[in-house]
Amino acid sequence: MKNIGYRISEFINIIPSLCRGDQNLTDRWMRQSPTVMLGFTLPLIIIGCGSYGLSMGLWQGWQMSTYARIKFPMVVIATLGINALLNAMLAMVLGSGISIRQSLQFLFTAFAICALILGALSPITIGMALQGPAVIGEEAKSFHSATLLTHVFMISYAGIVSHTMLFGALKKYSLSRSTAIKTFIAWLVGNLFVGAQVGWISRPFFGSPGSPVEFLREDKFASSFYEAVYRSFINFF
Fold this sequence. Notes:
Layout: H1 2-20, H2 23-30, H3 34-57, H4 62-93, H5 100-130, H6 140-165, H7 167-173, H8 177-201, H9 225-236
Helix pairs in contact: 3-4, 3-5, 4-5, 4-8, 5-6, 6-8, 6-9, 7-8
């Protein structure tokens, strides 16, 4: 029981350290195995992204909200799995000197911080969903476009901030400042690109006006995330 209590206490104490981007925590994790890190970061990803996913589907009702709450953490974990290999390869190709194990640990930390930020932002998107117009109505199409653009901004913001908070540690473990900058940009672009497309395939998250509530779309491979953002931008303005 004492061991369980210690682990829970350590888990709770990690949250403010991650929010501050505490480099001492990063240094300590770098000396541990990725498995130990996963034990701390995976629950944060599930809780933070789960609460944000709930807010994404709330406009369409509780069924869509439940689907999104389940799917969004799965999308983030799938993105983490795909980028685990991609980030390690980019780090080696760019000559950063960062090992595969270290790139994994940076990735786990970045995604945990991202989940905390999204969890903190979820009350805003919950309020937006609750104050939205009826799903079927004249304003539904414009609100759907505004919702898509809002979530794109929120998730991109969380991803950029979480990666930026680790930039100091990345410079410390890279062979030079220039390779750290190149690795940082490559990781950020790669993670955002893969996450966006995995999320698009896993839609719907908040549903389209007039479309049935469903867990996955039959036409999930039709078009792309970037076409949808462009169309939403045009519809909104």
